Structure formats: structure tokens, C-alpha cells
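Help wanted!
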Amino acid sequence: MKKSIDQTIKKRSDCPISCSLDLVGDKWSLLIIRDMLYLGKTTYNEFLSSKETISTNILNDRLIQLTKDGFITFTGSAKRKKYELTKKGLDLKPVLESIALFGMKYSIADKEFLKHVKKTMKL
Amino acid sequence: MKKSIDQTIKKRSDCPISCSLDLVGDKWSLLIIRDMLYLGKTTYNEFLSSKETISTNILNDRLIQLTKDGFITFTGSAKRKKYELTKKGLDLKPVLESIALFGMKYSIADKEFLKHVKKTMKL
DNA sequence: AATTAAACTTGCAAAATGCAAGTTTTGTCA
DNA sequence: TGACAAAACTTGCATTTTGCAAGTTTAATT
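Answered by r_m:
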């Protein structure tokens, strides 16, 4: 039986932050959006080729879910499917940007702090 | 045996976005940060009381992990532990803000679009 | 029609999360 | 002090999500 595709994502609360995370706060969705936004990727195989190595079943699930939730659409029926961001998907750009900025600021991990914490707490 | 707490989070790649998500891209971390940033929460039980109902073991794990990763610290040894954001934690504010903006923009879910998609795709 | 490669599925293992019920710790106060 | 209560934390097990490897289906191309 086809895995119930009609499942509505369950909202944990009405908080806008929580709601957003319920939609794209999984392990892969934002990376797919990143691929489309910054790397111009449009196809299944292009997404597959990203260095983070998503697996095929997950990629498939996410593409379906992102489509259902209105972040992306596609043209060209099966084989040569081309995905593109909707307005809603494009509206995630500020989110990705702020995440990227944060990531760049802290990319050289603070090993010093880690060492400190390990001493301080009884980990 | 105490669950290996020394596990270093595995980076999927060197992409700043990917790295950030590897740190706080789980289901709960950003909601805890939100609670501290916007609701002034500081204690275990305050976090527990949030409407999204995190469970105790997860909360505990996240607090430890966020501490290890330098997003939060605490004062006051066990009982009356008070958590607070570090500089690094505070630097997530732009991220939460952009997420919140997005969430508010789309809070009234596009049921119309959903209906459309359901017809279009053979879901 | 046969080939091929992109798109998608399946089955099972591992990891993360959810839930309910505990136990430990430490401030409070009789 | 020492019993008590409440905060902090643990444990065990069910469920869900993700990871991995190997498939099958589908549609362009020849």
C-alpha cells in the first residue's frame, strides 16, 4: 500500500516559529531549498548529487511534501521533471540567509569553549 | 551507563547552512532558544511548560547539547539551575526572527493551494 | 522494440523522538 | 535536623524518522 501521502503535518502549536519548523524544520527540506536557491538545482538527480548525500527515499518524500506544502512546484511530467520554487519557497530566502550568516560566523568551531564546558560541567 | 554524552555532532558537509542545521536543526533546539529569547524562560520547568510539550528526556538532552555547543550556559547548581544564552546563542536571533516573519506571513494556511495541488498531482 | 538513465519504491536497520513512570537532588520549614 | 515537596534528571519501551542497498517503473533516445 502506498504510504499515506495525505497525512497533514501536525502543528505543535500556533506559534509562527513552531509552525514554520513543523513545515521545513526536518533534517533535509532547507537543504533542498538551498540547492534550488543558491545552486540552481532543479532535478531529482541534481538534488541527489549534493555533498550531504540525501538518500533516495527521503528525497522523494521531501519533494512530495514540499510540493504539497506549496514551497515548490514542478513542470515536465516524470522523467525530466523540473522543480522550481514558488513564491512561498522564495520567501524562505531570508531564513536561509540568516542561517548562512550564522554558520559562517561560527564555522571555525570554538574548540576552546568546548574544552571549557567539558571541565566545568561534569560531562 | 550514562548515554555517551561526548558524541560530537557529525557534520554532513562544510556548507555553513548545513553546519548550522547540524547544530540546531533538530525538532526542538530552536524552540528552546525561542523560549529564552522571546519569553524570558530560564529553567527546566519553564521549558517543560511550553505549549509544544517537549518531553523530559528530550529536553534534558537538548539542554546538555546546547550547552556543549556553546549556545547556552547555566548558573546555580542543580535545583534552581538558571540557563541563559551565550553570545553564540544570541546570534541566533536573526534566524528566529526571519523564521517568525515567514511563519506570520503564512500562518493562515493556504488551503486553496493545497486543494489545487491535490487535484494536479496524483496524490 | 531495445536501451538507458532518471524517477521512484521497497524492505529492513539504525537513530531520534514520544510517553509514562520512575529516581535523585536540594531548597524549605516545622 | 530531618521530613517534605518540588525541580532536575533517568529509564525502559513504543513509535516515528532517517539511512542504506537494492530493487522496479517510466519515458526519452536510438
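OP: Thanks! One thing I noticed: The domain at 16-120 of chain A is CATH 1.10.10.10 (Arc Repressor Mutant, subunit A).
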